[in-house]
Design a protein that fits this description.
Length: 385
C-alpha cells in the first residue's frame, strides 16, 4: 500500500497506454556517447535493475554536492585569500560527475537489454534528473565562488533558474507534442563540467582569476555559455517544436491556456523565491546561498515531477502545486520580519520541502510498483502470496 495516493486512477490508466517517444539529435550524444554507453552496458550484470543504476548515478551528484558543501559551504573557498578546496576533491568531483552522467545514459540501455522497460523507469529517471539540476549547478559554482573574480550569489540564483526552466521546457514540449526532444545542452554541459573539474585539479582555481581577453574573465564565460545555450538553442528549439505541432494540428492541447498551464507553478515558485531574495531583511541569499539554492531546486523538482506524471499519463496538468500554498506564508513571515530568525526559518522550510518531496517520490514509486506488479530496485517478481 502506498504512503499516499498521489497518482490518480485516471493517471494509472494513462500509464498503461504509455509508449516512450524521444528524439535525440545531438551529434555528441549520437556519435560519441551512445556508442560509449552501448560498450559500457555490456559489462553490467543482467540481474542489475535499471532503476538501481539510475539511483546510483543520482547519488554520485548528491555526494559531489555534500563533498563541496564540506569544503566550501559558503562558496568562498575559491576566492583569493581563502583556503582552497584540495585538488583531490576536484578530481573526485570530475570522476563522480562523469560516472553520474554515464549511469544516466546506461540505465535505459540496461532496461532494454534485460527486457524490463516500464513507465516507472522513465518517470524515476526523469524525476531524479529534475532534482539533479540543483546538485550539479551548486557544485560547479564552487569552481569560481563568490570572490572578486567569481560570480555573485544573486547572479548564480538567476543562472540556476535559467537551468531549471531549460530543463522543464523539454517536458513542456512533451506535454504538448507527446515527444521528448532531448536538449543538446545537457550532454555538452556534462562532458564540459567533468573536464573542468579535472583541469581545476591540475591548474588550481587561481588560473580562473586571470582574464581570457582584456577584462573578460572565465566567470563571464561560464555565465555567458549557460545563458546563451538556453536562449539561443533550448528555448528556440522548444518553441519551434511546439509551433510545428500547432501548425500540423498534432498538439495534445489546442487552447493556449492548457498548453501553457505547466508553467504556472514554476513561475509562481520563481516569484515567491525571488520576493524572498529581494525583500529579505537579513539578505538571506548572502548569508545562506547553498541552503536557499537547495530549497528552490527541491521545490522545483517537486513541481516538475508532477508535470512529468501528467505528460506520461496523458492527463491534464495540475494548475497549482500544493507545496506553493504553505510557501506563501513562509515567504511573508520572512520578508515582513515577523520571524526574527530568518536563517532558522529557511532551514526549517528547506527541511520540510525535502521531506515532502522524498515522501512524494516514494509514494509515487510505490503506487506504480504495485500497479505494474514490479519491484523498483530489483528484476525479481514481487511476492504476491
Amino acid at each position: 500500500m502506498a504512503l499516499y495516493e498521489y497518482v490518480t486512477q485516471d493517471q494509472l490508466a494513462g500509464f498503461d497506454k504509455y509508449k516512450y517517444s524521444a528524439v535525440d539529435s545531438n551529434p555528441l550524444s549520437v556519435y560519441v556517447m551512445h556508442p560509449f554507453w552501448n560498450f559500457v552496458v555490456k559489462f553490467l550484470p543482467t540481474w542489475l535493475a535499471p532503476n538501481l543504476i539510475t539511483f546510483t548515478g543520482f547519488m554520485f551528484l548528491v555526494l559531489n554536492f555534500l563533498m563541496l558543501a564540506f569544503y566550501d559551504f559558503n562558496f568562498t573557498a575559491s576566492a583569493a585569500g581563502h583556503e582552497h578546496v584540495p585538488s583531490w576533491v576536484w578530481v573526485a568531483a570530475g570522476i563522480f560527475n562523469f560516472l553520474a552522467y554515464t549511469l544516466d545514459g546506461v540505465d535505459g540501455k540496461q532496461a532494454r537489454r534485460t527486457n524490463s522497460s516500464t513507465p516507472l523507469g522513465e518517470l524515476f529517471d526523469h524525476g531524479l534528473d529534475s532534482w539533479a539540476c540543483i546538485f550539479f549547478v551548486a557544485t560547479v559554482y564552487s569552481i569560481f565562488g563568490r570572490g572578486e573574480s567569481g560570480v555573485g550569489v544573486a547572479t548564480l540564483y538567476y543562472i540556476l533558474w535559467v537551468v531549471l526552466f531549460s530543463f522543464i521546457l523539454s517536458h513542456w514540449e512533451k506535454y504538448n507534442t507527446g515527444i521528448l526532444f532531448l536538449p543538446w545542452g545537457y550532454d555538452i554541459s556534462q562532458v564540459t563540467i567533468s573536464l573542468v573539474y579535472l583541469v581545476t585539479a591540475v591548474v588550481g582555481v587561481e588560473t580562473w582569476y586571470q582574464p581570457i581577453l582584456w577584462s573578460f574573465l572565465y566567470r563571464d564565460l561560464f555565465t555567458f555559455m549557460i545563458i546563451a545555450c538556453s536562449f539561443t538553442v533550448t528555448v528556440p528549439m522548444s518553441l519551434y517544436n511546439v509551433l510545428k505541432g500547432h501548425r500540423s494540428n498534432t498538439l495534445k492541447h489546442s487552447s493556449l491556456y492548457e498548453a501553457f498551464l505547466p508553467f504556472l507553478s514554476p513561475v509562481l515558485l520563481f516569484v515567491l523565491s525571488t520576493i524572498w531574495v529581494v525583500f529579505s531583511p537579513s539578505n538571506i541569499l548572502e548569508l545562506q546561498p547553498r541552503i536557499f539554492y537547495l530549497m528552490v531546486g527541491t521545490a522545483f523538482a517537486n513541481v516538475t515531477c508532477k508535470l512529468i506524471v501528467c505528460q506520461m499519463s496523458n492527463t491534464r496538468c495540475q494548475a497549482l502545486s500544493w507545496l506553493l500554498l504553505p510557501m506563501t506564508p513562509v515567504v511573508l513571515l520572512a520578508v515582513t520580519g515577523v520571524v526574527a530568525n530568518e536563517i532558522l526559518l529557511l532551514y526549517l522550510w528547506t527541511a520540510a520541502v525535502i521531506l515532502a518531496h522524498i515522501h512524494y517520490g516514494v509514494s509515487v514509486v510505490q503506487q506504480l510498483s504495485n500497479h505494474f506488479s514490479i519491484l523498483a530496485f530489483s528484476l525479481k517478481k514481487p511476492n504476491t502470496d
